[in-house]
Amino acid sequence: MVEASREAAAADIPRVIELARLARAELAAMRGGDLWLARDAWPEPLDEAYGALVARDDALVVVGTIDDVVIGYGAVLVETLRSGAHLGVVTDLFVEEEARSVGVGEAMVGALVARCRAHHCVGIDASALPGHRAAKNFFETHGLTARALVMHHRLGPAIG
Which of 154, 40, 21 minimizes the C-alpha distance to 91? Predict the structure, then answer.
């Protein structure tokens, strides 16, 4: 079994969309997931959103594979801060549940970090929903620690 990652191509978009829909279903059910879906997730239509992301010079979309079968995807944007410095922002990172903990996520994070280093980013941000301990632990294992907490008070019914 060989775990790897590679830059996503236009031909990978249909599979990335399948995986994005799995990620959305998983995260939407978690605390804060409904608001994440309404505010932070890439907008529909996903083929246009991910197609545009793959084409951007300031972004990298990767796919994670086991024996060349795509079972995960990730994306990072390189943002320019007001100071002119660059910050990498991981917008997506997902591996199918049955394929977790075998090294695919690590391979993808490695590629995303390498892109950020190549663009001289001062750091990398990634988000995890509250209570998503596995995501928090994964990011901490790769050197990401909390630098801010977003506090929220719901005023109305759940979104969606």
Answer: 40
